[in-house]
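Exam review. A common question shows you a sequence with its structure tokens and asks you to describe the fold in words. Practice with the pair below. Do the first one on your own.
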Amino acid sequence: MPLLLLVLLLSVLAYMWITRRNSTLTRVCMWRQERSAGQWRCVACGAVVPGAQEPKDCLRPEA
């Protein structure tokens, strides 16, 4: 049983690591879709990206 829990923990951590590699979004990034304008707007920094799919990259300027 402890071995099964260890395997489960490692698989969850591996999944989280793999999904994190494909995105540069942070907790600050909050994209909202504006369907009438056909674009996405970041609530935090005001960046605008045209398109139908939600952006996977953070456009926040480096401070």
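Now try the second one, then compare your answer with the model answer below.
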Amino acid sequence: MAYLIIILVMMGIISGLNIAFNPLYEWYVYIIATIIGVIVVIGIDGVVASRIRHMPEKYFDYHKKVFKTSKTEYKFYKLIGVKKWKEHVPELGMFTGFRKNKIANPKDPAYLSRYILEACYGIIIHLWSVPFSFLIMLLDIKMYSGNSNLWLTVLLPVAIINAILIVLPAFILKYNLPKLVRLYEISNKKGEQ
């Protein structure tokens, strides 16, 4: 719910600022451009997620360096208060059939292994969605002739806001991953005994 409110408020701010200070177009053009920008960027995020979900699991092994959380990185996550606000970030595990908002079975190695795999997929999906978000700026066809600035005043802010909102789940997953790996390794050892 918090994300929806943020998105709607930011859409209002982007449209309002353009209506007030950017007299290039009629007022309704800015509202329409903002709505289209948001819809397209969400679509781009969906395409990125879908493409990455179809990649082989071998690329998402938690031993790979990209999934390691360094001490400095962990301190950063603590500094920005991940633990306090992570409950307000939507968890979209419903699309993959595996929810990651809480650990349902902390003693089952198979469950934890799947949880870790899903977290690794999620990290890559969210990180790759950030640069692809900025493709929406190409929607402003008139910018190539120098007759429009929608790419700068509407689409760039939409892309930046999307990038911020889309990277937060990656921060949460990277923050939680070391704990998950520890739980998995402990449960695996108990299973071997």
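Model answer, second protein: Residues 150-192 form the longest helix (43 residues). The mean pLDDT is 92. Full marks require stating both points clearly.
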